[in-house]
Recover the amino acids of this structure.
């Protein structure tokens, strides 16, 4: 599988169980891997990007069956956006046309012959939507494309609001299993952060009898179907961390 990850962490945090169960070698393509977002006390993009890449490579070597590529495109906050959350996805098609075309060709030039997975864009993060649009372009051209649900580690959402795929695959894993990956990205998450649907820790989740599992999903669509950003269909992005 070729896994298109908008940011460092999205693919591993969203597709962990698929990567673990995969019998073939996978490749993660980190698109917007030039970033200055970090919880640590460094803020220079070069330093932050280096730190985030180290975190990514650490978890990649833990899994062992993944190659990682960094495209080093600047993330939205380094491209002049003051917020990553976009209310009008249509404007992205024209506003980001250059970047969409550039990303399409960068991925095309990898010449991957097999299943490519793009983010479904369940929230309205501009960088995720750009990747999703590029995924649509590959789908349109007849490539083998799927879209993964990028709910990295935290909340569950109402799946009924998503576009109807002709097929989806789902795997379930425990929140505690997700911890292995989540802890690798300490520059992005406070390790003591809450985890569950109701904001509880794993221990509290068990004590309260809450569901300690999380599902990871991949959706497949017909080639003539334009996968739209899911947030417009009623997902409250406040429910989702991406
Ligand atoms: Zn992301």
């Amino acid at each position: 599988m070729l896994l298109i990850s908008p940011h460092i962490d999205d693919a591993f945090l969203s597709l962990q169980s698929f990567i673990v169960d995969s019998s073939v070698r996978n490749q993660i393509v980190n698109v917007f891997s030039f970033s200055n977002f970090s919880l640590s006390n460094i803020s220079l993009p070069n330093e932050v990007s280096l730190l985030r890449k180290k975190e990514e490579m650490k978890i990649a070597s833990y899994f062992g069956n993944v190659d990682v590529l960094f495209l080093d495109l600047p993330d939205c906050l380094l491209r002049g956006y003051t917020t990553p959350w976009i209310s009008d996805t249509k404007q992205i098609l024209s506003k980001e046309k250059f970047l969409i075309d550039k990303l399409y060709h960068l991925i095309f030039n990898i010449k991957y012959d097999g299943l490519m997975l793009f983010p479904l864009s369940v929230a309205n993060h501009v960088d995720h939507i750009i990747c999703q649009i590029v995924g649509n372009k590959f789908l349109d051209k007849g490539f083998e494309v799927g879209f993964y649900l990028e709910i990295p580690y935290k909340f569950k959402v109402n799946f009924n609001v998503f576009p109807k795929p002709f097929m989806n695959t789902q795997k379930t894993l425990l929140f505690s299993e997700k911890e292995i990956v989540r802890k690798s990205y300490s520059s992005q998450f406070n390790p003591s952060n809450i985890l569950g649907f109701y904001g509880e820790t794993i221990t509290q989740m068990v004590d309260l009898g809450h569901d300690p599992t999380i599902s990871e999903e991949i959706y497949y669509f017909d080639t003539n179907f334009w996968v739209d950003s899911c947030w417009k269909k009623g997902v409250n992005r406040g429910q989702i961390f991406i």
User: Anything to note?
Assistant: Residues 6-7, 10, 128, 242 surround zinc ion (CB under 6 Å). The first helix runs from residue 10 to 21. Confidence is low (pLDDT under 50) at residues 234-242.
